[in-house]
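Input chain follows. Return structure tokens only.
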Amino acid sequence: MTHQPPYLAIADEIARRIRSGALAPGDRVPSTRAITREWGVAMATATKALAALRREGLVRPEPGVGTVVVAVPADRSAAQLSRGRIVAAAIGLADAEGLGALTMRRLATVLSVSTTALYRHVPGKGELVRLMTDAVCAELPLGPVPADWRTGLDRGARWLRGVYARHRWMAHAMAGFMRPVAAPHAPAYTEWVLAVLRSTPMTAGQKLHSHLAIFAYVQGVGMAEDLEERARQETGLSGEEWRERNEPRFDAIRSAGSYPLLNALTEEGGFALDLESLFEFGLRRTLDGIAVMIGETSA
């Protein structure tokens, strides 16, 4: 069961009151202070809950009054639903709050329709994620296949990382190597990479393993970036701020002397360590390894 952040649980409850008619168009929704009292949360959490409702188009600020319920426009009715519109809204929700926040009930709230209306177009979340993944894979073409295999693999890896940067949830949606996404556009990246490797002397197995090794590496960095973004959203702290706050604990561990090699490395410094430098380092070393394999295969 996916744990839902407190601000989303609050937003869902207020949205339920709106859908049920308990809060009608023009009615004031609970203020941040009222939310802190009713749910026992911090003011920042209450503010995030109201912001989530505004993003969904359910409420708007009214000067001199507060936050009020808006009337649902006619073009957002169930009669105007389509599979494409549902997929686009689901991608927007996952981009903003992560794949874990995506449920059929939550998506129905975003679209201001009943959950039943969604099921007329999409049978469930599993199929919805498949359609979302296929739509994202079709967003930007990879372009012409370079003649040089290393240039091609480098370009393909950066294209894939760009996909994960725009849609961080994709690193999780594409997680199964043995169970690839069965969607029309999903194999396009694999086909492109195999075209890059077509002129090399590698065997079929070496080509596929090279592709999957790069795929797994880029995906791992993508997952790390997604986890970092989630941590930033949940704590309100950047990575640097988090490290500063935990510096006394790290100092205590270092002073115990249990990890002399690690301590010497960090004290020496003089190097950058972030996800960007990690990506560049790992990609270069992976391509170097493939170059060695190609040389050995050619010999």
